[in-house]
Design goal:
Two copies of one chain form a homodimer.
Chain A lengths: L2 H29 L6 H19 L2 H11 L1 H5 L3 H17 L4 H24 L2 H22 L5 H9 L5 H24 L14 H15 L6 E5 L5 E5 L2 E6 L6 H19 L16 H15 L3 H4 L3 H7 L8 H8 L16 H16 L8 H13 L24 H22 L2 H6 L3 H11 L9 H9 L6 H14 L4
Parallel strand pairs in A: 1-3
Antiparallel strand pairs in A: 2-3
Helix pairs in contact in A: 1-2, 1-3, 2-6, 3-5, 6-7, 9-22, 10-11, 11-12, 12-18, 16-17, 16-18, 18-22
Keywords (chains A, B): Carboxypeptidase, Hydrolase, Metal-binding, Metalloprotease, Protease, Zinc
Cofactor (chains A, B): Zn(2+)
Function (chains A, B): Broad specificity carboxypetidase that releases amino acids sequentially from the C-terminus, including neutral, aromatic, polar and basic residues.
């Protein structure tokens, strides 16, 4: 091993430890730390994130990467190390342009803004969050100005979460969807709707936790390499492929939400648990493409979890763990988990109208970053768009613009990933059935782990080493298109709603 | 502010952040991190603890402390800062003699040994733990050799957990207890014993958690400044007075264990939540005297929690939260929580025979550090002493020598603190009744918070600024003695067991 490579590996090792504890601080703030303990965690997070950032942009690291990129050094590197060195150098070019003190301001504001969002949502008062949102928008623009000067800010943000993606492509894909879904949803809403009364009884959160554990294990989540926490908004994070954590939220009068959050976050987690462990804690591990990531969570949640056959092998066990479910037949349950309706909350939406929730957010973000719509106008704009796409108006900000945490930590440009994920899912589904046969059969026979294995081998194993375009090309051999997803929706809902 | 003081405060601030994340890593390892994620945490903990230790023993800090101790600088310091500077300098003199690389070995071995102990306990196989125990003993001796060369190792360990305490004093106090308790326990065991059948029914752990939350809140634990986790062995830790965490363990066929663990750990936590917040994250905060600390947890657990009057205001609520308790009258419950019997597990023992569990461990530790009894002989010695003091023999190591985690992280010399705590409690009780009137009345009327306030003002507020001897002198105005505890036992159990 060359001396530089040895130094570089030691340096990576130290960086890894800082990232490790930043992840842990974030996890604990959300899942465990008490109200009065938040400030201590924010102090520590600000300090260690700043140190971590300084390390990832230091002259020392830059010098090592330059050396490792020289032909004679580079030729000696493993393929993984070649990827890591190339990727880190590219990221560094951008990140080094962010002044360290401004980065520190960003980290502190992210944490404070996250807490303000929680308070604002609890109080259903946008004005508590507005000044923080304003700061996050300004800071996001400022950061994009350093990393990608002269580029359209919103395209920089889209590319950050889904490399190679831009608003022209998204306009096309979302356009294809809108064109097909607006008439489909009209037909569905005109059809007979199921009665959902039974789903509003009281479901003990302790029982819901047991069902969640069953579902996680059923789809292939490893408890030896994972943990579960409780938060306002479910999420997944990981330290490495050996420690991947999901959270959930339990509603006393809705058993379905926590089940599908479990399957969704479980999908993210299965991805991370199955990345090549050689990539752990490097730029090659932990998939950084959010569209690709969401394609996995949403494949489990929707393509598999909202298929009736998914439930055939486990439904009796669910009824045992949550006795009120004994009053609900599998048919009734299946109708309800595919109950299409115009609703207020994205995370609770059915898979069809969900698309409109994302299109709305995508347009909001374009309004913020392209049209510079001022923060105080955003709730009104939100409500207008809700009326336009979903024909309802939120009664308050908590069920309107405050419902998602994403903007609170500056994750602008993330929302489109969810729908890109579903678009990819339509494509994967067609390919998977070509290779493994009908999904209905596989699920009905309780062979879901075969699907997990297929996804492991086709997608998960590669972590961040394949860009979204490469993933799609490798799995499906074609360009991305919304048509397979549209076909899936049209076929499925013609059957669910008995449409002509 | 002098320039050195300013630098010193910045330095303390950085140290605080390292300690903060070391505490968090430990918390997460015990309460949340999955099996395969432990190694990543151990790596991080080893790194940051070593850095933290290096910071607390650096020449830079030493120089600052020297300067701050000069008369002109020292005179300008606040009383708190005077305490901190003096205390840190004294600790540093000792710690600086530990080689940094040996400290690192110690930290890593502590973490690995903790995991080995857990595996050994689960497998009930001492041989899994033995090599780690051997290393921990050797490392403990080695460390004592650096910090206190030439001193009796076991006295160094006792002084570490309860400053000013030595084996001569403990021999006297435990001797007083033995003399009185051996005949008392004989009399009790000869009396009529209550029927405990009802307490072995199934008690849902989810209900037990609800009862735990009720009890914590009832005694004064603040949820805004605290959190609860689940672990094999309950413990309390704190980041500052604003973030104090307890853990618990729930046995399906024993509702009492988790209740009393909650009250015990709640007592530790109430202590930490009520230390002068000015002392947060300094050598003045977070009480470092374990006898004094245990005196608080055990005051809540035994003096208050095992008093019938404690339950009068809450027993109905407990029965609501845990329906099986409706079959159990308060009288039956009271008899059971004071059911004296020879038993195997320290943490499950009644308050009387508990004393023998500690005396046994104290004698074991003397055997290890004074008589150098080899590790492989320890299970046999343990079982001999169990027979001698408690007239029973463990069927296996899990319910014998492996039951406690203390030795796994090298906390030799800690066990006597529990009994010292009870000895102090006897003294506090007499003083408290002098000042506030009969505890029975206060508890019966649901005025337990008045007792908490008394303890807050007399003990908690001072954190680490008063040594155990000073605490006793300030609260009781006399030397430590086991006589009040003996009087408490004799009076209480004459009544519980209707002894002549």
């Amino acid at each position: 091993m060359s001396k530089t490579l040895e130094q570089f590996e030691q340096y990576l090792d130290k960086m890894k430890k800082y990232e490790h504890i930043n992840t842990l601080l974030y996890w604990d703030m959300r899942t465990c730390a008490p109200k009065l303990g938040q400030a201590g965690h924010i102090d520590a997070l600000t300090y260690f994130s700043t140190e971590s950032f300084a390390m990832s942009t230091s002259d020392e690291l830059y010098g090592m990467l330059e050396t490792l990129k020289t032909p004679e050094e580079f030729a000696q590197l493993s393929d993984t190390m070649k990827f890591i060195v190339t990727r880190m150098q590219r990221d560094m070019e951008k990140d080094r342009r962010i002044p360290k003190d401004r980065y520190k301001v960003m980290v502190r504001e992210q944490a404070e803004s996250g807490n303000a969002w929680e308070d604002a949502k609890n109080a259903s008062d946008f004005s508590i969050f507005a000044p923080h949102l304003e700061k996050m928008i300004a800071l996001t623009k400022e950061m994009a100005g350093y990393t990608d000067p002269g580029k359209e800010v919103y395209d920089v943000l889209l590319d950050k979460y889904e490399e190679g993606m831009d608003s022209a492509t998204i306009d096309r894909l979302f356009g294809e969807l809108k064109e097909a879904l607006i008439p489909l949803v009209k037909k569905i809403l005109a059809a007979k709707q199921p009665d959902d009364t039974k789903f509003h009884a009281y479901f003990d959160p302790d029982d819901q936790r047991k069902v969640q554990d069953l579902l996680l294990s059923y789809i292939g989540f490893s408890k030896d390499a994972g943990a579960v926490g409780e938060t306002e908004h479910p999420f997944t994070l990981n330290f490495s492929s050996k420690d991947v954590r999901v959270t959930n939220h339990y509603y006393e009068h809705d058993p379905i939400s926590a089940m599908f959050s479990a399957i969704h976050e479980g999908g993210h987690a299965i991805f991370e648990q199955n990345v090549n462990p050689e990539y752990d804690n490097t730029a090659a591990g932990s998939c950084r493409y959010m569209g690709v990531h969401e394609s996995q969570s949403r494949f489990y949640e929707n393509i598999l979890g909202r298929n009736k056959n998914f439930w055939i092998p486990v439904y009796e066990k669910v009824q045992e763990l949550m006795p009120q479910m004994k009053d609900i037949s599998l048919d009734e349950f299946y109708r309800e988990i595919n109950h299409v309706r115009n609703s207020l909350i994205r995370t609770e939406a059915d898979e069809v109208t969900y698309c409109f929730h994302i299109i709305l957010r995508y347009e909001m973000e374009k309004a913020i970053f392209r049209d510079n719509v001022p923060v105080e106008k955003l709730p009104e704009l939100w409500n207008q768009k809700m009326k336009e796409y979903l024909d309802i108006t939120p009664a308050n900000d908590a069920e309107g613009i405050l419902q998602d945490m994403h903007w609170s930590d500056g994750s602008f440009g993330y929302f489109p990933s969810y729908l890109l994920g579903s678009i990819y899912d339509g494509m994967y589904l067609e390919e998977l059935e070509k290779e493994l046969g009908p999904v209905d059969e596989i699920l009905k026979e309780g062979r879901i782990k075969e699907i997990t294995k297929w996804l492991n081998e086709k997608i998960h194993w590669y972590g961040s080493t394949r860009t979204p375009k490469e993933v799609i090309a490798n799995v499906c051999g074609k360009e991305v298109s919304a048509e397979p997803l549209v076909r899936y929706f049209e076929k499925k809902y013609a059957s669910v709603y008995d449409l002509k």
